[in-house]
Amino acid sequence: MSAILKHVNYIGCYRILIVFLAVWLIVLVISAFPMLSTSIATSDIKTTERLTRALADLEALRKQNEELQEIFKDISINNLNEEQKEAIENFQSRLTKAEHSFNSNNLGYISPKEEPNTQYELLRRRIYSNTNELWYFVHSRLLDIQKRASEVAPELVDSIAYLLSLGLEHKRSLIYDVEQLTEVDGYATWREKESNDLSNLVQERFKYLQNPENCNTAKKLVCSLNKGCGYGCQLHHAVYCFMVAYGKKRTLIMKSKGWRYHKAGWEEIFKPISDTCTNPSGESVANWPGNQDTQVINLPIIDSLSPRPPFLPLAVPEDLAPRLTRLHGDPIVWWVGQILKYLLRPQEKTANMIQETMTKMGFKRPIVGVHVRRTDKVGTEAAYHGIDEYMAHVDEYYNYLELKQAVDKRRVYLASDDPKVLTEARNKYPHYEIIGDPSISKTAAVSTRYSDSSLFGIILDIHMLSMSDYLVCTFSSQVCRVAYEIMQNYYPDASARFRSLDDIYYYGGQNAHNVVAVWPHEPKRSSEMTIAAGDLIGIAGNHWNGFSKGRNLRTNQIAFYPSFKVKDKIETAKFPNYSEIYKKKENED
Q1: Considering all CA atoms of the chain, what is the largest pairwise distance in Å, rounded to the nearest integer?
Q2: Could you tell me which pathway this protein works in (predicted)?
Q3: In 214-288, at which residue ranges do the beta strands (DSSP E only) sit?
Q4: Helix (H, G, I), strand (E, B), or coil: what is residue 255?
């Protein structure tokens, strides 16, 4: 025993001293060059040499760490006293911390619990999604069996109902366990910070784009808020214009005088999208696409756009994609939400109106937002769904929420274009506190839709739906999709805080939505698709029964496939990265 300790004392101490010296040198380099990782590409040769030396020091540190660990393995811990055991354990802990001392802003190494691995975040969300897909499949099959049993074997109906109830509890428990990972994995602070950092980054770029130093010489893209459609559709028209302007690096000029919702224009309801540049004139003017030298380009509606630029949904900026993919379950929804965040900054009058109405209604969490679409779209663009279908998902949300916390009152914010829906819901579900304003529903009727009262009503509905903890609606409605997009601004990742009764998320005029097969599939029925791993499939929709429908781009087959066997393909485009913002800041500093 004394010989072993002597071995540690005479050999280990020298190595320990060397390790601490190496760590000190590395910390010194990091302290002297905090922006090393972001300036490697443009730094001089000396900086590159410093990086090389720092990496060499880190490699030496690792090798000596391994040698020390080998020495510790040779020591019989059982023969040491408590003080000696504690000393060795503390030193081993220090070695581990030293090895991870470089953070993500330097050489790519991170301290434990500082940032999650991208694959971890993707896998966590995939488990959550596939748990739901498994339940959709089981639930659908049990309902089919129950329906048949009611005709040929009524005695089995109660047993199947029991299985449905038990299966739902099981699914609820699994979802709870998956969500608990975000509570215990140590990355909650990172998610909040990354969400804020990304938002601040793009909002700063938007502000820079929209406020050029010289409006008279600035390149401009002119967009008229004149699309003949409803409020949600017109918001998406404005978002599309902004996407193209951002991609083309042209200041967006929004022409909104005579807007069908408010004749005085956008700027009376929301803040101007530019503080310094609102003049649409220029030395040269052309309709889309114009050319690089054209100062002012007029943009048509997305349906008439030709040629189509690469900046359209579902593409997100390539330079943001790695961060977005790790942070968020649906990057395009986050991207659209950020543009809406910039566009929908309310004027003081609008903000006061929203706040006063929320206070008057008693808007309080927890609350589920429900949007029931009726009137002109039902029977043409969308199928009819009764209030019971919506409330079944509201019930399930609260049943799940009560696993995590006490719920003082089950609340719903109900928005609809039919005032009778509010009365029906309150009569059928008296144990719920159902918040809503029937006068807003009346103004949403086709005959009064394009009035100031209707405009304020739809602004209120979308705001309160987006502020909800969970959203139950039909994604065939643009009002619902806008609320879902804005909701992303209130959480690091709200991509799973919804239940659509019909469509998956889409953006009107988008490019193809493709998914990638991660598992092969051999059809069991004639309606099913043959899939090889790696196949690209253009998705048409999820049937919420375990299967989705689409076109296999390799075989051109249109058929159903198991939803869990694919993953979304994240589309990217080379948007500008607005690096001059940071050069300007460096010069100012």
Answers
A1: 95
A2: Protein modification; protein glycosylation
A3: 220-224, 251-255, 285-287
A4: strand
Angle, alpha carbons 123-126-127 (nearest 5°): 90
Single out the residue of 455, 481, 452 nearest to residue 466, CA to CA. 481
Distance CA 440, CA 353 (A): 14
Measured CA to CA, the distance from residue 494 to residue 367 in angstroms comes to 15
Tens digits of per-residue pLDDT, 115-168? 999 999 999 999 999 999 999 999 999 999 999 999 999 999 999 999 999 999
For 514-570, CATH number?
2.30.30.40
For 70-129, the DSSP string reads HHHHHS-GGGS-HHHHHHHHHHHHHHHHHHT-S-TTTTS---TTTS--HHHHHHHHHHHH
Identity of residue 569: K
Q: At 242, which helix (H) or strand (E)?
A: helix 231-248
- For domain 327-331+345-500, is the CATH number 3.40.50.11350? yes
Contacts of 95 (CB under 8 A, 6+ apart): 19, 65, 68, 69
DSSP letter at 346 equals B
Tokens of 29: 């380099």
Distance CA 448, CA 549 (A): 38
Q: In what order do the strands lie in the sheet with 498-500?
A: 433-435, 411-416, 368-372, 470-473, 498-500
DSSP string over 299-314: ---GGG-SSPPTTSTT
d(CA 432, CA 424): 12
Which amino acid type is present at position 448?
Answer: T
Q: Which of 335, 331, 323, 31 is nearest to 193 (CA)?
A: 323
Helix, strand, or coil (residue 485)? helix
Q: Is 437 left (phi over 0), alpha (psi -120 to 50) or beta?
A: beta
Digit-coded pLDDT (tens) for 218-272: 999 999 998 989 999 999 999 999 999 999 999 999 999 999 999 999 999 999 9
451: which 2 tokens? 């009035």
CB proximity list for 70: less than 8 A, separation 6 or greater:
none
- Can you give 546-567 as a three-state secondary structure string? CEEEEEECCCCCEEEEEHHHEE
Does the bond joining 312 to the residue before it have cis omega, within 30 degrees of 0?
A: no
End-to-end CA distance of the chain: give it in Å, rounded.
61
Kind and range of the H or E run holding 370: strand 368-372
* Domains of the chain by residue range: 2-99, 118-186, 327-331+345-500, 514-570
Q: Under a CB-based contact definition with an 8 Å cutoff, are residues 50 and 78 in contact? A: no
